[in-house]
Give the backbone structure.
Amino acid sequence: MIRGLHGLFYSSEPEALRAFLRDKLQLPHTDVGDGWLIFDLPEADLGVHPVDESAKPPSGTHDVSFYCDDIQGTVSVLKVRGVEFTQEIEDHGYGFVTYLTMPGGVRVQLYEPKYAKRASAPKEAPKAKAAKKAAKKAAKKAAKKAAKSAKTAKPTKQARGKGKAAASRKRR
């Protein structure tokens, strides 16, 4: 079953673009060898748009956008890191939008969506999940054992004495 989306940027400056994504946008990544970075984005979404009356953009065109939760704050941080934006933030109805240019002349949209995105809770690592399950099982087993031993335990002399004293007080 499909579980993600893999996108590509074609650039005349691929090393510079990889460095830009790694250093300026600080995207998490994996080096798959020889400096070839695959960026591991935490989530993605996909939209399908119609072409306009003049068939623009041409059918078959792909587009990549980055989105964020706070466009004003994100733009401010990225500008400090040296990212250049080609226009001011504008309201496009579906969200607040601006564009940035990456090495090789790659122009990308950055937007803050106005629509609700389906919540995507981070998945727990399999080892952590297994450890949590084992701890829960052990705690359950220990509680069961404690309850069983409490039922079968013989009272100590001191406890028996307190019981007799309490019983004789009740008779009075």
About this structure: The longest helix spans residues 126-152. The chain has two domains: 14-113, 127-171.
